[in-house]
Write a structure and sequence with these properties.
- It holds the Pfam family Peripla_BP_6.
- The protein contains 13 helices and 13 strands.
- By secondary structure, it is an alpha/beta fold.
- It has 2 domains: 213 residues, Rossmann fold; 156 residues, 3-Layer(aba) Sandwich (Rossmann fold).
- A hairpin with a 2-residue loop joins strand 12 and strand 13.
- Helix 2 packs parallel to helix 12.
- The chain is globular and about 65 Å long.
- The N and C termini lie far apart (44 Å).
Length: 415
């Protein structure tokens, strides 16, 4: 069982049980020492994503509990995670990292998003440790030779997939989109810059009427949302956090425009936003979009795997989109470790080995229990760049449902 206390560590230790030792000495047969590798986890227990962190970290730990028992034990490898609270803040991540690395010597880092990527992407090549994220990618990291791996393409890629689908669904002219964003994180800025570039390149699909900047935890956005509506916005994009979704939805309701849909991502999805609003029905008619499985109640291999973690391994989490992100990054990690161990054995696994395995071994969807589509990384970008598709969820008559599966993503140019 993985320790419940959260910190970040990667000490490698070798242990050999007395029974195994007797076997080796008495029978002359071989037996692997159980080798433990630690994974550095970045968490946010006191910042803007504290409300969804239990599901992310719980599902990350659940994967290790399962893998250690059903896969790692036979390979002679145990994986452990310790996590630090970095508050989704670039400066905090940068400040903590030297101590984390010295304490843990990790073979991999699990992050949350833009602050981690922004703080560490220049350091990781020298430190030889890959960073894995369950989030979408970022334009500022779109370059070759990266040590950052996003399970999904960029947020603008995912948004583009939604807008191309929704524009066809509405059957009219270009969509008029209002964007709620913030400058508190480079990730938020990157998202709206990418969407603005996509709109400029594809005026037949959408027009961004305005991008509104707000604080990290807004409480009242009535004036700002009213300005977007006066400019003709028919859909509002909120890809920053749950608090921003709540403030936007309340503003729409107070203005008598509750029929205007909001489009959100996985980290501030419909379930978590509905919970924050006190009633899932409050998100009726809105949408979420991302390149991984939608966490609905419908039968799926992803849900079956989660139920196994919950019932057999006592995973303390809910089946939500944040949980799916936790599953995505951790499953990619353990599958990469498997590839390394099969080649070189259980001893001496390094972060560089894990990165090489990620880049050279495609991960079929069934290897992530349908959490992700077929994944293939290359050296040209830190995220998948070919065969892209997104899933789209909505709230319809109070029911959380998948409304579109594998909607194709149009071409998105760098911004």
């Amino acid at each position: 069982m993985i320790e419940q206390k959260i910190s970040v560590s990667v000490r490698v230790r070798h242990t050999l049980s007395s029974a195994a030792l007797l076997t080796v000495l008495g029978c002359g047969s071989t037996a692997y020492a159980q080798t433990t590798y630690n994974i550095a986890g970045i968490a946010d227990f006191t910042g803007p994503f504290a409300d969804v962190m239990k599901d992310i970290t719980g599902c990350r730990r659940g994967v290790l509990d399962w893998w250690n028992e059903e896969v790692g034990k036979s390979l002679g490898v145990t994986l452990k995670v310790k996590e630090y609270d970095a508050r989704y803040d670039v400066a905090q991540v940068a400040s903590l990292w030297p101590g984390i690395k010295a304490e843990l010597n990790p073979i991999a880092v699990w992050g949350l998003g833009g602050p981690d990527s922004n703080a560490l992407q220049q350091r990781l090549p020298n430190d030889k440790v890959p960073l894995l994220l369950g989030t979408a990618g970022y334009g500022f990291a779109w370059k070759d030779g990266s040590w950052v791996f996003n399970a999904r393409a960029t947020y603008p890629h995912e948004a583009a997939g939604f807008y191309a689908w929704y524009q066809k669904k509405m059957g009219g002219g270009p969509l008029k989109v209002g964007v709620i964003s913030s400058e508190v994180s480079p990730a938020y800025v990157d998202i709206h810059k990418g969407v603005e570039r996509f709109a400029k390149d594809n005026p037949q699909i959408l027009e961004v009427v305005e991008t509104i900047y707000t604080e990290a935890q807004p409480t009242d956005l009535t004036q700002q949302v009213n300005r977007l509506l006066r400019k003709g916005a028919t859909v509002i994009q909120v890809f920053n956090n749950t608090a921003s979704v709540v403030a936007t939805r309340r503003a729409l309701q107070s203005l008598g425009k509750g029929n205007i849909p909001i489009v959100v991502s996985a980290h501030n999805g419909l379930l978590s936003s509905g919970k924050a609003l006190g009633d899932l029905n409050q998100m009726e008619g809105s949408f979420e979009v991302y390149g991984m499985a939608i966490a609905t109640e419908d039968p799926s291999t992803a849900r079956a795997f989660f139920e196994k973690l919950r019932t057999q391994y006592k995973t303390q989490a809910n089946f939500t989109s944040p949980c799916m992100m936790g599953l995505a990054m951790s499953l990619l990690t353990v599958r990469a470790v498997e590839q390394v161990v099969k080649v070189k054995g259980p001893a001496g696994v390094t972060g560089a080995d894990v990165r090489t395995a990620l880049q050279t071994n495609p991960t079929p969807s069934e290897r992530t229990f349908g959490v992700l589509p077929n994944i293939k990384f290359s050296n040209e970008a830190p995220f998948p760049t070919s065969g892209l598709a997104v899933n789209i969820g909505t709230i319809e008559k109070g029911k959380y449902k998948l409304v579109e599966k594998n909607a194709p993503v149009p071409n998105v140019n760098k911004w």
